[in-house]
Amino acid sequence: MSLEQLVQTDARSRVVLPGHPNQRFLLRENADGSILLEPARVVSEAQAEYDETPELQELLARAMPSRTVRRRRERA
After folding, report:
1. 57: Cβ–Cβ under 8 A, 6 or more apart, which residues?
2. How far apart (Å, rounded) are the C-alpha atoms in residues 74 and 35?
3. Residues 13, 20 contacting (CB under 8 angstroms)
4. Which has the closest alpha carbon to 5: 14, 17, 23?
5. Spans of all domains in the chain
6. Which of 11, 25, 52, 73 has its CB 3.0 to 4.6 Å from that of 37, i.e. a possible disulfide?
7. How many C-alpha atoms does 39 have within 13 Å on its Cβ side?
8. Which residues contact residue 40 at a Cβ distance below 8 angstroms, ignoring those fewer than 6 apart?
9. Which of 43, 46, 68 lies closest to 56 in space, CA to CA?
10. How far is the C-alpha of 67 from the C-alpha of 5, rounded, in Å?
11. Which DSSP letter does residue 33 get?
12. Strand 24-29 relative to strand 35-40, pairing
């Protein structure tokens, strides 16, 4: 289902996207002048490697119960 809305940029080229607070998007301007916004998230290289490597996931899952593995958790 496509929902059309008229939006207008402000003096600083910003636009409000109702219903999408605090979200990130990749912006692509097509040759015809249309703009495509694709929902996005930033992932570290280490997380991407973990997500894409089943062997690494298995290895770390086996290591987690070990008493020699220490995990420090820092609160932001």
Report:
1. 50
2. 40
3. no
4. 17
5. 1-65
6. 25
7. 5
8. 24, 25, 26
9. 46
10. 56
11. S
12. antiparallel
How many residues would you count in the chain? 76
Tokens of 45: 């290289």
pTM higher than 0.90: no
Strands in 1-76 per DSSP E: 24-29, 35-40
List, for residues 36-54, the tens digit of each pLDDT value: 999 999 999 999 999 999 9
25/40 Cα distance (integer angstroms):
5
Amino acid at 15: V
Alpha-carbon span 40 to 55, nearest angstrom: 26
